[in-house]
Amino acid sequence: MNLPTLNIANIVNIVNTVNTVSIVNHGVQRVDVEDFEHLRKDELLIRRLRAWVPIGSPSRPIDLDDLATGFEQVPLRSSSLASTIESIDEEFYHLDLAHETDCYNTLIREGGRPSHPVSLGRDVLEDLGQYREIISYWQSGEYDWQVFQRQMGAWRAFLEFQRKHRDKKGDFPQYARAVRQRLEKYGFTRPFQLDEVLERQDKMTTWIEYLDYEYWRYLKDMAFVKLHQPEYNAAWKKLVDSRVLRPGETEESICNVECIFRGAREEEKAEGAVESAEGTMMWAEEAIANPQCSTLSPQYAERRLAAAQSTLDSAVKSRKLIKRRNALLREFFEKIGESQTVDGIARTGYREVKRNAECRSIILRWIVQQIPLIELELSTAKVAENEANKQDQDGGDRRSKHNGVR
Q: What is the pLDDT of residues 151-196, one digit of tens each?
């Protein structure tokens, strides 16, 4: 069986999702890692892998010699294993936190609102409290605390959307009507007025426009789901009718990387069983063809040959069933699974879009919850501004009186 070539840039994701993985070295040596329950929690391993792969670097095949060299490039600064692990963990944590802080500050500077204070760092996972729901929206996994880069990216996508509808001549009035109608459809009746000149538009209006943007994305996703629902239904029916699903298997349980790797392991094991049975067959046939070179009696050799043939037939049948099951699961997953790029063309996955639409209620609810907080911030800022102006005016009056007395 041809094993898949893994990429350095996504090995961290594989560590988090599969139980066993085979890494090919020059196409001949294979290293099987079985203890993935431990590796999933091995933050040090994941951080060292991340350190070796710069953000944005292109994927390339893993070479075990190269991998070992990469690990050696991350210095170990303590003679004690425990203190070394702690030191490296803290070093990489502070690097990650610095990057998160940059994204957090950029998000605020560009007018967005973060889900929670960046000062909480990874400790936010210890007690999510009021941030539990909104952080879950941005997380890529249960233990993911680095969410501000995604928030910054999402906000920038909205800003680009804003500009696009203002740059096109004559498009803005129609866009502004669509925003108002869409929000009214979902029960948002607060008065607001979009401004074609973004620099003149106030903070609250921009936030309301962001709410509409997320509603627009939701409607777009639901339209995609509705369009492709018949295709999904047909693909699922074909899979069910093929009778390759096992008891208790659902769409959710088969559409993940772990299922794909489990199928690959089963196929590899089935190939090994066939090869082993073929070897036994050859041995039994050799014993019958050359009885003088064998210690087996002819009768026993015949029985061994019959047993070997039966084992081989069973192994071939099992391999065929497993290969058929894997092929059908792959076909289903490719049709309705995650978004992917095929031959340079981006393909949107049904399941991913449906999942995004189902989660959209979280971000929509959070955006609405931010409105009274923004009102309070604007009101507080106005009071502070008025107080500052009053102090300036009082100071000016006192200076005028003082000059008059002279």
A: 999 999 999 999 999 998 889 999 999 999 999 999 999 999 999 9
